[in-house]
Automatic annotation (TrEMBL):
Belongs to the ATP-dependent AMP-binding enzyme family. This is Acetate--CoA ligase. The keyword Cell membrane does not apply. One of its GO terms (biological process) is acetyl-CoA biosynthetic process from acetate. Residues 18-74 form the Acetyl-coenzyme A synthetase N-terminal domain. The keyword Ligase applies. Keywords: Acetylation, ATP-binding, Ligase, Nucleotide-binding. It is an enzyme of class 6 (ligase). PANTHER family: ACETYL-COENZYME A SYNTHETASE, ACETYL-COENZYME A SYNTHETASE 1. Its EC number is 6.2.1.1. Residues 76-462 form the AMP-dependent synthetase/ligase domain. Residues 525-600 form the AMP-binding enzyme C-terminal domain. InterPro entries: Ac_CoA_lig, ACAS_N, AMP-bd_C, AMP-bd_C_sf, AMP-binding_CS, AMP-dep_synth/lig_dom, ANL_N_sf.
Length: 640
């Protein structure tokens, strides 16, 4: 084992357990994963760990013969040992809005909603669409679906009616939960009206028999007789107990549509048993879970991060989760730091985008808060630059908190590569090491395995419990997308570099490569070079058609201070870090970049804007800030 498995300053505590897990998972995977299955409550314990096969028709099969219910593992078993422990703390964005739910109360509220769903005719295997902001009812709805064996489909609150209609039709949802009106800072999002418009666009809208409307703001909204029902009124009529549906380990728990997909929506299907084991295992190992933790993952529940680390992982482990409705700096900078101090948050898991935004604020904002309760910090969604990593560690963690940068995907179900807190020494900017049982490998363009230090396509040689089983109603697309580029392996779509001691660095999507006069230049390499300039907060490099060179390189840069930064600094950084041949054709200094709410930069949009190809920009409502697109278009036109 590399020396890196021993965290600095931790020699006084046992450090061999993590190494032991790595070795056992490598040498005895079947026994290891059956042991990890004991993290859950099973009605029938599984007969085998994995019967997965990456060849032929591709089968992802975990915990055959096992019978369980996800909500029982998250709720019922904790009633026996800690019924009055706080399970969920919810704060609204307005002052005074706060709920604290014990495991007993959360269980009762889940059961009431589960009984409503059964009364409305929802059966095991039916899809239920959840279209809610970050309110407690979103968590309750997911667990209620799990309790009756319904497959939940959580839909982003910013989707347009067209985007919602696509996903409602593809999933065949029979019930919808939505809000009257959602809040996002000063904005009010007409959730119910948007859902009504979406249902009108569905050719098979008659499949949706009922719409449960959660009164988030209490605003008057249109209610269609017989179809639309008031959530609060319906749950008040039901009993606080509900028998849990026995589920086979392979039965779907949820399907989740990946952001930024083209063509028909790509709904990844996650099974119950394997996913729940992976959620519990990774939450415990990556974040060094303690029973006293108050765990705050800031992701929206409509993303996989929200599924695994807002809901299923922490609750399966008997933890306390923090759910906050509001924005990081509304109504004033530092709002999220206040939430941490007010609630004693111990583990804070957020995106590099949030970290970079906080870096741009006055340093007094974060330094004026205590943040003494924090012990672990984490990031997710994209690689974090070394500068942002150090700022997060020094300013938010006060130099004493472990920082875990996590690499994973919707398809993986949970964290795959990271520096597990207090077990693996992190390297700022690196994804670090694969978790126990994760067989990451690099392949070259001829699908040959890269040995030792090197660079290549990031693949997985063996299945893991959290792996998606398929694409909803399209297994052929699942096989084509993930298993044909590198036969016999799961291909992540990312490139990576591995150091001699096994540490991985993610170099970006392999299709994010620009070919300039025969030079293949990874956009991540350009962005890494630009990040060495401390006046740059973030950047995005894209390729556009070029008459002479085939492709030209264009860079969008967000400076720390507008009006002061000069584009020549980018050229110097790229020349020094990559070479003169990689100096961009054009540099645009911008206030922000188009991103999904999970913090991923939508480079497809940047490519089209930079190339003045403004036809077919697609649905912009999925962006965190759709208005930024018009701003970028105007800037590019002005500098043409």
């Amino acid at each position: 084992m590399p020396e890196a498995f021993v965290a600095p300053g931790q020699a006084a505590k046992p450090t061999g357990q993590y190494c032991d897990m790595v070795l056992k998972a490598q040498q005895e995977p079947e026994a290891f994963w059956l042991q990890q299955a004991q993290r859950l409550t099973w009605q029938t314990f599984p007969q085998a760990a994995s019967r997965s096969d990456f060849t032929g028709d591709v089968v992802i099969d975990w915990y055959a013969g096992g019978v369980l219910n996800a909500s029982e593992s998250c709720l019922d078993r904790h009633l026996q040992t800690q019924p009055d422990k706080t399970a969920l703390i919810w704060e609204g964005q307005d002052e005074g809005q706060r709920e604290v739910l014990s495991y007993r109360v959360l269980h009762e509220r889940v059961c009431r909603l589960a009984n409503v769903m059964r009364r409305l005719g929802v059966k095991k295997g039916d899809c239920v669409a959840i279209h809610l902001p970050m309110v407690a009812e979103g968590v309750i709805a997911m667990l209620a679906c799990a309790r009756i064996g319904a497959i939940h489909v959580v839909l982003f609150g910013g989707f347009s009616p067209e985007g919602l209609a696509e996903r409602l039709s593809d999933s065949g949802a029979v019930l919808v939960l939505t809000a009257d009106v959602a809040r996002r800072g000063e904005k009010r999002i007409p959730s119910k009206e948007t859902m009504d418009a979406a249902l009108q666009r569905c050719a098979d809208a008659s499949r949706v028999k009922h719409v449960l409307v959660v009164p988030v703001t209490g605003a008057d909204v249109p209610m269609q007789a017989e179809r639309d029902l008031n959530y609060a009124h319906e749950v008040a009529q039901e009993l606080p107990t509900c028998p849990a549906e026995p589920m086979q380990a392979q039965d779907p728990l949820f399907l989740l549509y990946t952001s930024g997909s083209t063509g028909r929506p790509k709904g990844l299907v996650h099974g119950t048993g394997g996913y729940m084991v992976w959620a519990s295992f990774t939450h415990a190992v990556v974040f060094d879970h303690k029973p006293t933790d108050i765990f705050w993952c800031t992701a929206d529940i409509s993303w996989i991060t929200g599924h695994t680390y807002v809901v299923y992982g922490p609750l399966a482990n008997g933890g306390t989760i923090m759910v906050y409705e509001g924005l990081p700096s509304w109504p004033q900078p530092g709002r999220w730091w206040d939430v941490i101090d007010r609630n004693g948050v111990t583990v804070f898991y957020t995106s590099p985008t949030v970290v970079r935004a906080a870096m741009r604020e006055d340093e007094a904002v974060v330094r004026s808060r205590s943040l003494e309760s924090l012990r672990i910090l984490g990031t997710v969604g994209e690689p974090i630059s070394p500068e942002a990593w150090h700022w997060f560690h020094d300013e938010v963690g006060k130099g004493r908190c472990a920082v875990v940068d996590t690499w994973w995907q919707t398809e993986t179900g949970g964290v795959m590569i990271t520096a597990a807190a207090n077990s693996v020494v992190p390297r700022a900017g690196a994804a670090s090491l694969p978790l126990p049982g994760v067989e990451a490998t690099l392949l070259d363009t001829q699908s040959a395995v890269v040995q030792g230090a090197g660079e290549g396509l990031l693949c997985m040689a063996r299945s893991w419990p959290g792996q998606a089983q398929s694409i909803w109603q399209d297994h052929a697309r699942f096989k084509q997308t993930y298993f044909t580029t590198c036969p016999g392996y799961y291909f992540t779509g990312d490139g990576a570099r591995r150091e001699a001691d096994g540490y991985y660095w993610i170099t970006g999507r392999v299709d994010d490569v620009v070919n300039v006069s025969g030079h293949r230049i990874g956009t991540a390499e350009i962005e890494d070079a630009i990040a060495t300039d401390h006046e740059v907060v973030e950047s995005a490099a894209v390729g556009i058609p070029h008459d002479l060179k085939g492709q030209g390189l264009v860079v969008f840069v967000v400076p720390r201070e507008q009006g002061v930064f000069h584009p020549d600094a980018v050229n110097r950084a790229v020349a020094a870090g990559v070479g003169r041949y990689a100096v961009p054709e054009k540099i645009y200094v911008v206030s922000d970049l188009p991103k999904t709410r999970s913090g991923k930069i939508v480079r497809r949009l940047l490519r089209k804007i930079a190339a003045h190809d403004l036809d077919g920009l697609g649905d912009l409502s999925t962006l965190a800030d759709p208005d930024i697109v018009d701003e970028l278009i105007a800037l590019v036109k002005a500098q043409a």
